[in-house]
Predict the 3D structure of the following.
Amino acid sequence: MSEPAVETREAGRPRPKPAAQQKAVGPKEIRKLAEENPEAAAQMVKMWLREGDETG
């Protein structure tokens, strides 16, 4: 049997939606995330800052 072309996920974990189907995230959603999970919000900010360093 050959290997699947796409990596499989664990049972019960949904596959992420393609970028074209993802809902836009606005300030309200970001504020809610930061209030509910400040560590995840901090990681997002770090990634955004690193992206800015790479582009100039």
